[in-house]
């Protein structure tokens, strides 16, 4: 029989001084209660209770055993209550793993608002651009961009989608010209991740259907923030996540290219070890993530920012003069002040 249950039965018999009373209190038969106590005595090799027709009494061994067992059961109940509380109330350390650039540019505000909402949870964030085994490495929640995670047992939930944007600086375009079709990228130095991480072939969807090109990398880097820095230095045409360059597009530091073409979207997914007995800290963080990105409407905002920057690209594409001084004044007038400044500066390069 179950030793822990036998210990509970013994304590109840000792407290009530009766097998019948303990049976009623525990909703067991008297025979089962008697068997539990007999099994304990057989396991210990000693008598715990003196039995007479009128009453029960503890032996010396029984008194010692009762005292220790009562402490054990009290400690066990306390542990169970603590675990149950942790499963129902957000508390403890929450281990999160996410890709480096996404974490730096999109995750920090979510973690900050979550920590303010649930002060008893301590977020522990790891940023890694490698394949992660969520279960083996002990993470509670992972964020996947393009499936950088390994484990057959994880559960995934779609968070949002991101878009990829082909872009360059106004100064670079003023000097080297504006690519207007994917094939034109073959004539430009491109800034991209190494082929084993991002793939060399790019598949565009456009007015004439699917277009496949293999741009030639001028510089490769395994970190998209580094590629962004190269792009801002005017070193070539970059293909970057829109969430990374949103402010650069809005300010005019970078200009979106090939606006009639689209690259496949990036799936951004939440992953966690199991749906079974999900701790409150994990459940609430997942809900908080989803709520944040639904409220932010990131894909739609990306599209609005690209659309806002499109007049810069249209103006650059519409002139044959690489110095760009003949940009449409009406187009430039509609741009944000920072964007107009960038165009003026680039026209003087």
UniProtKB/TrEMBL annotation:
Record key words, sorted: DNA-binding, Transcription, Transcription regulation
Domain named HTH lysR-type: residues: 1-59
SUPFAM superfamilies for this protein: Periplasmic binding protein-like II, Winged helix' DNA-binding domain
Gene3D superfamilies per record: 3.40.190.290, Winged helix-like DNA-binding domain superfamily/Winged helix DNA-binding domain
UniProt xrefs under CDD domains: PBP2_CrgA_like (cd08422)
Top-level division of the source organism's lineage: Bacteria
Protein name (record): HTH-type transcriptional regulator DmlR
Gene name as annotated: dmlR_8
């Amino acid at each position: 029989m179950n030793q822990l249950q036998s210990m509970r039965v013994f304590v109840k018999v000792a407290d009530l001084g009766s097998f019948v009373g303990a049976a009623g209190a525990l909703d067991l038969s008297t025979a089962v209660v008697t068997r539990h106590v007999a099994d304990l005595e057989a396991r210990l090799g000693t008598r715990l209770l003196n039995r007479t027709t009128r009453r029960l009494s503890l032996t010396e061994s029984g008194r010692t055993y009762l005292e220790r067992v009562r402490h054990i059961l009290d400690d066990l109940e306390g542990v169970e209550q603590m675990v149950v509380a942790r499963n129902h109330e957000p508390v403890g350390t929450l281990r999160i793993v996410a890709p480096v650039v996404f974490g730096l540019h999109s995750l920090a505000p979510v973690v900050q608002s979550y920590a303010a909402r649930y002060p008893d949870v301590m977020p522990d964030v790891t940023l890694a651009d490698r394949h992660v085994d969520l279960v083996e490495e002990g993470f509670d929640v992972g964020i996947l961009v393009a499936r950088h995670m390994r484990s057959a047992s994880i559960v995934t939930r779609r968070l949002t989608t991101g878009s990829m944007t082909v872009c360059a600086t106004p100064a670079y375009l003023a000097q080297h010209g504006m690519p207007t079709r994917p094939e034109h990228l073959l004539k430009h130095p491109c800034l991209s991740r190494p082929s084993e991480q991002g793939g060399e072939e790019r598949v565009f969807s456009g007015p004439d259907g699917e277009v496949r090109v293999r741009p030639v990398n001028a510089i490769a880097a395994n970190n998209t923030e580094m590629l962004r820095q190269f792009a801002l230095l005017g070193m070539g045409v970059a293909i970057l996540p829109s969430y990374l360059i949103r402010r650069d597009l809005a300010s005019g530091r970078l200009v979106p290219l090939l606006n009639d073409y689209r690259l496949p979207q990036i799936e951004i997914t939440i992953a966690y070890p199991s749906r079974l007995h999900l701790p409150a800290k994990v459940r609430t963080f997942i809900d908080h993530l989803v709520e944040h990105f639904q409220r932010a409407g990131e894909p739609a905002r990306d599209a609005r920012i690209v659309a806002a920057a499109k007049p810069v690209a249209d103006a650059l594409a519409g002139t044959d003069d690489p110095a760009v001084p003949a940009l449409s004044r009406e187009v430039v007038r509609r741009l944000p002040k920072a964007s107009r400044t960038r165009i003026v500066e680039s026209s003087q390069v």
